[in-house]
Specification:
alpha+beta; coiled coil; 6 domains; transmembrane; about 1150 residues; extended; 5-stranded antiparallel beta sheet; signal; Mechanosensitive ion channel protein MscS
């Protein structure tokens, strides 16, 4: 069967290969006669070949196959023979159906192989013909290219254009624009083909090798042969094998012809591309000339018409004031139209520039892909790729331009609508003139009869002007939309190329490792850095630009002055907050955010000036490279100082770390001291690196840049050594002996300390750009980690404050409850009545819910930190792109359309992460709810327990749904499975569902609560836990009894403590006939009342219930406060009654 499947499927694969090859050849060679499709008979072939073997007699195999008849027949004849055999076999009725189907399957596979062989032969012939004709086509293309290069008619072209009328010039412009669009499309297709040809040789050779190996296996005498019991199947198999051999041989020849012809076809395609590019360049030069001619002719016509209109308008406006006012309003509209026409003409040039830039970036992306496909990239290619990246347009500028043009587009559409409304109002010039004159007559002004006809002419002129304005605005709208489309395409291409280059250039060297010439580069760099005139120019530019923005400059100075003036107050406020932290009466959660904001304000004091100065120096218009470099360096210094000052102020005395987060004084002081000196050490390093980054001089990167990297790396290594050392660092007291972090402390400590030194070594080794990108990434990573740490600590502080308040409140509640019970007991003793006690519900374990909350906070912090770092480093590290490798395709429906979406490794990882989050959240969510919300509501403990339990199931269901959705499964795909499961549940899982629903009823209706004493059948115990399927109960022998929830709903249940914990005790006493019943009754009652734990209310009683067969029968009734006292009271009652009757000499029977 494996062999059969191979024969049946190989034909489809081979045909697909032929289609690809035929498409490639069709671009290089003239169209070949069509190959007949499967099931068709070639036009020139007869219905049945004359040499076709005769039909076999019944129960006899057909004649020997063409594989045994000497040389193989031509593909066309082989196809006809197989078709004939298929027809004969389908017509036979004496063959078993199973045998006929198996033989037909083999023959149809043979037909497919023969058709593939025919297609391969035709494609190979076209490859050969294309190779033979390629030289002529190359020569012809070169001749045309030389003719274009000579430009014999280019000198005369402007003269010919100047002789064209407006209609002819417009037609020439339309024709040239259409031809240019066609050439651009063909050039894009040729570029794609040439890129495919560049890698096709290797692929074709690999395919040919695989085909030859398959052919050798097919022809090998050691190949396994299928043994067929029926001769018809055996003959069909021989035909199929021969056809497969023929198809593979033809495909090997096809691939050989493709490989042989590939260089000539590449040369031919390259020549055609050069010719098309030259034609397009020629058109791009001619189109502006034609556009200029069209614009000039239109302006001449418009000016001529305008002069005529102005002359007539001036004549009319002199007749009356109304006419003069109307003419002036019309002139305003005409000015607007002229401005719109000017914008349209200006945007034509911008559109051409954008399209040219788009073509350049597209070509650069193709070139970059071709370079990167080479594999090993040397210094020359590295420089080429870096030059490509430096010449990319700014993505930020493109996004801003698109957003601004979107708003302009909206305004243009609104203006066109207003013009349409105004033009529609002027449809009837006579009516409009009458209305205007009527308004003028209301003011008592006389209107001569000649004014109305003149005004009607002016109305017509304005209506025509609005029509022209509409057309111009329509042109502008289309132009703006086209420019936005071009810039969006340019933005997409730029982002793709930038991402591609950034991912590969990170690990490419930009310079030679340091050597003998490095010191010379350093000296030259210091000369650049010490240029006094350049620093003076930067200072003057800073002052000039600050004075150009007086309001903003004053605002920045005011903010700096305010922070400087209020620094002392902020420090004092920080100390007052610290004094209130930890005290129940003064501490609350908002103390920590307030201290965080104060620390941030203190950190912003000096960075405001650095940042504003840097921003001023980097604003347009562009200045000297040194000046803009100083601005870039100041911006980097502002970011660095903001971060380090913030860490400095959260670690001051009475700050966040010591007072709010519980750091020791030694750890806080150590961090503060080292951050202070690190800040002053890194400021010059950061300024120099920022200045060098903005410079185009390579010697600055190689000289001073690498020295700055080295200095910064050493400073950071010393800082990390002193602050993170496992024995005397800031976390020394927090490392728990025996933990994984403690066991690996020297490993992670060494890696962290060596990281900045390794980055400096990269820069010294020539990988300056890579080291710079990694350094920036690690700096932002450090900021993200610090932010995550502080955020986690702030939330944990809230948990601590809430837990402390909850514990104190519980202590107050217990004290008040004890006082109330004591007062009630004293009042009861005064009146001789027992106090009724409601059953106590178990309290929530505060330590447990606090631990659950901490677990959730840790999980949330870790997930947010991991997500932020993954998103940040995704573009920098190409290895992370492996997570986007598709594993399978999933069909999804989006907006009613069905499409195939890949499910990648990252999708699976997200699904696993969601599953882990769901599991942890379901286990720990009740604690978080209790800490954050439920303890504030007036809920009983049982109700809070029910809310927490239901929340677990909701979290589990939602989490599972999102996990499946992340790997491509949505509700539309699983609803039938759910329906089927519903049917299965209805028949096979009804008990589980019944227990589940009963559990929900118990949780919310609460007929049974945790802590209640219940009796179900002959089982009595205390409810210890209510699960969603069953309830746990502990009996008197401390055994755990599992009761299905359904039993608690459907069966008879005695809840001894549902509303009252008091229970009744009954026992029977029998005395001998002849006993004084009154004396016996009083003796028993006195004994019952004297028994411990028997309540006075309800009062105990002794009742004479009847005459037994041999004794008088009494029933004793008493009440006890708790069910746990029943056994003790029963024992004590028996002992006391027996003793009291014996003392009264009353015999018990």
């Amino acid at each position: 069967m494996t062999r059969l499947r191979s024969l049946a499927s190989w034909a489809a694969v081979a045909l697909a290969v032929q289609l690809f090859a035929a498409h490639a050849v069709a671009q290089d060679a003239p169209a070949a006669p069509p190959t007949p499709a499967a099931g068709e008979t070639p036009a020139a072939a007869p219905p049945a070949p004359p040499d076709a073997p005769p039909a076999a007699a019944p129960d006899q195999p057909p004649a020997a196959s063409e594989a045994e008849a000497g040389p193989p027949p031509a593909p066309g004849r082989a196809i006809e023979r197989v078709k004939s055999r298929i027809g004969e076999l389908e017509a036979r009725t004496d063959v078993a159906p199973a045998i006929r189907e198996e033989a037909l399957t083999l023959l149809r596979a043979a037909l497919g192989h023969n058709e593939a062989a025919a297609a391969s032969a035709a494609t190979a012939a076209r490859y050969q013909d294309s190779s033979q004709r390629a030289a002529d086509r190359i020569t012809e293309a070169k001749q045309q290219l030389e003719a274009l290069a000579n430009g014999a008619d280019e000198a005369e072209f402007p003269n010919r254009i100047r002789s064209l009328a407006l209609t002819e010039a417009q037609q020439a412009l339309d024709a040239a624009s259409g031809e240019a669009a066609t050439l651009r499309s063909e050039l894009a297709q040729l570029d794609t083909r040439l890129r495919d040809m560049g890698t096709r040789a290797t692929g074709a050779r690999e395919e040919q090798t695989a085909e030859k190996q398959a052919l050798d296996t097919l022809e090998s005498p050691d190949a396994p042969q299928a043994v067929d019991s029926d001769p018809i199947v055996a003959e069909a198999r021989r035909v199929a094998i021969a056809a497969e051999r023929r198809a593979r041989t033809a495909n090997v020849n096809l691939l050989e012809q493709e490989i042989i012809s590939l260089p000539m076809r590449q040369a031919s395609a390259t020549a055609r591309r050069d010719l098309m590019a030259a034609k397009l360049e020629k058109l791009n030069k001619r189109i502006p000339l034609i556009e200029a001619r069209v614009t000039a002719l239109r302006e001449v016509e418009q000016a001529k018409a305008q002069r005529e209109v102005d002359r007539e308008a001036r004549q009319l406006s002199a007749q009356h004031r109304v006419l003069d006012a109307y003419v002036k309003d019309t002139d305003v509209i005409r000015t607007r139209e002229a401005d719109t026409v000017r914008l349209v003409n200006e945007n034509k040039t911008r559109l051409v520039e954008t399209q040219t830039e788009l073509a350049r970036v597209s070509d650069a992306r193709i070139s970059a892909q071709q370079v990167l496909e080479i594999g090993s990239i040397g210094g020359e290619f590295s420089e080429l790729l870096r030059a490509m990246r430096s010449q990319l347009p700014s993505s930020t500028r493109l996004q801003r331009s698109i957003a601004e043009r979107d708003q302009t587009l909206v305004d243009a559409r609104l203006r066109r609508l207003r013009a349409e409304e105004a033009r529609r109002a002027l449809q009837n010039p006579a009516a409009m003139a009458e209305r205007l004159l009527a308004n003028a007559a209301k003011d008592g002004e006389s209107i001569p009869e000649t004014v109305q006809p003149a005004l009607e002419k002016l109305v017509v002129t304005r209506r025509d002007l609005y029509t022209s304005l509409q057309d111009t605005l329509a042109t502008r709208i289309a132009q703006l939309a086209e420019m936005n489309a071009a810039e969006r395409d340019l933005l997409s291409q730029t982002n793709q190329l930038s991402s591609l280059l950034n991912s590969r250039l990170l690990w490419l060297p930009t310079a030679e490792p340091i050597g003998a010439g490095w010191l010379a580069q350093v000296g030259r760099s210091f000369t650049w850095l010490g240029d006094i005139e350049a620093w003076k120019a930067a200072g003057l530019t800073l002052v000039e630009r600050a004075l150009e923005r007086p309001a903003l400059s004053l605002l920045v100075l005011a903010m700096f002055g305010a922070l400087l003036a209020f620094s002392g107050r902020l420090f004092r406020r920080l100390k007052r907050i610290a004094d209130k932290v930890g005290r129940y009466s003064t501490d609350n959660y908002w103390r920590t955010p307030e201290a965080l904001v104060i620390s941030a304000l203190l950190a912003l004091r000096s960075p405001i000036l650095f940042g504003y100065a840097g921003w001023l120096l980097t604003q347009p218009p562009q200045t000297a490279e040194f000046t803009s470099g100083v601005g870039t360096g100041l911006l980097a210094v502002a970011a660095l100082v903001t971060f380090l000052r913030f860490v400095q102020f959260v670690s001051v005395e009475h700050g966040l770390f010591s007072t709010h987060f519980g750091w020791t004084e030694r750890a806080r002081g150590l961090l503060w001291t080292n951050v202070v000196w690190l800040k002053f050490a890194l400021i010059p390093v950061t300024l120099i690196l920022g200045m060098i980054h903005a410079s185009s001089a390579q010697y600055l990167r190689d000289g001073l840049g690498r020295m700055a990297f080295l200095a910064g790396g050493i400073a950071l290594a010393i800082f990390l050594w002193r602050t993170l050392h496992p024995r005397h660092g800031i976390f020394a007291e927090r490392l728990l002996p025996g933990s994984t972090i403690w066991a690996t402390r020297y490993l992670w400590f060494g890696l962290i300390v060596l990281t900045p030194l390794a980055i400096a070594a990269l820069a010294l080794g020539g990988y300056y750009d890579g080291a710079s990108q990694i350094q920036n990434g690690l700096g932002l990573t450090a900021a993200i980690v610090v932010a995550a740490f502080i955020g986690h600590s702030v939330v944990m502080r809230q948990v601590l404050v809430t837990r402390r308040r909850l514990e104190i409140r519980r202590a107050y509640e217990r004290r008040e409850k004890a006082r109330a019970q004591l007062a009630a007991q004293e009042a009861s003793d005064a009146v001789g009545e027992a106090v009724t006690h409601a059953p106590e519900e178990p309290e929530i374990d505060i330590a447990s819910i606090s631990e659950q909350t901490r677990n959730l906070v840790r999980l949330a912090t870790l997930l947010l930190l991991s997500a932020a770092l993954y998103v940040f480093w995704r573009e920098a590290l190409p290895s992370l792109a492996l997570l986007d490798v598709p594993l399978w395709q999933q069909t999804v429906t989006v907006d009613g359309a069905t499409r195939s979406m890949p499910v990648t490794v990252s999708n699976v990882m997200i699904a696993i992460a969601i599953g882990v989050i769901t599991f942890i959240a379901a286990r720990n969510l009740p604690g978080l709810l209790e800490i954050t919300a439920l303890h504030r509501l007036r809920m009983e403990a049982g109700t809070r327990y029910a809310v927490g339990a239901v929340s677990r199931y909701v979290i589990a269901i939602v989490g599972i749904a999102f996990a499946f959705r992340s790997v491509g499964f949505d509700w539309s795909q699983v609803q039938w499975i759910v329906a089927a499961l519903g049917v299965g549940v209805g028949f096979g899982l009804q008990e589980i569902v019944a227990n589940f629903i009963s559990g929900l009823i118990i949780l919310f209706e609460r007929p049974v609560r945790v802590g209640d004493t219940v009796t179900i059948g002959n089982l009595t115990g205390t409810v210890s836990r209510i699960h969603i399927r069953a309830t746990s109960m502990t009996d008197g022998e401390n055994r755990e009894i599992i009761i299905p929830n359904k039993s608690l709903i459907t069966e008879k249940v005695i809840n001894w403590t549902l509303t009252d914990s008091i229970t009744s005790v009954k026992l029977k006493v029998s005395v001998r006939y002849g006993t004084d019943t009154l004396r016996a009754q009083m003796a028993i009652l006195d004994a019952v009342k004297a028994t411990p734990h028997v309540l006075d209310t309800p009062a105990p009683g002794v009742f004479f219930t009847g005459f037994g067969a041999s004794a008088l029968e009494f029933e004793v009734r008493a009440s006890v406060l708790q069910l746990a006292h029943r056994s003790t009271v029963m024992n004590d009652l028996h002992v006391a009654i027996e003793r009291a009757l014996r003392e009264q000499e009353i015999a018990v029977s």
